[in-house]
Amino acid sequence: MRAVQALKLARAAGVRIGIDGDALTLTAEAAPPADVLDLLSCHKAEVIALLRTGNDGWSDEDWLALFDERAAIAEFDGGLPRQEAEVRAFDCCVVEWLNRNPALSPSGHCLNCGGSGNARDVLLPFGTEPAGHAWLHSRCWPAWHAARKATAIAALTNMGIGQQRTHP
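The chain above was modelled as a monomer; its predicted structure follows.
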């Protein structure tokens, strides 16, 4: 979760983050605060892993096109104000990102806590992936899902999806 916080702080400071091999690339109009750079440095491996998580075959432009399409549908066909349409479009992108980046785990161990199942605390399969499921205790699902959603939001926001943009 620290990597997500580092990304959020960097974005709030106007820093755009990319990956070049095993290095982070940073671009900004002004020098970022030292504490943001320190966080990114301390959690570099996790930030890189987080940014690489979206290995779904879609480019940033593909995600932006999906976002723009969903926002336009909500605005013009649904009659929503643009800002509300963009909120709804972002939510659609989060769901699509989660679907395109499934979390799988071997049966017998909870993906969230690592524990095994027993008669009082069974492991349940989540997802419908042909390759397998994410196995979780029911009590572990809320935290696991919140972390997955935060990862999706961070990945999309890092691509510039859902940020305030000007429209023609």
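Helices lie at 2-12, 34-42, 44-52, 60-77, 82-100, 141-158.
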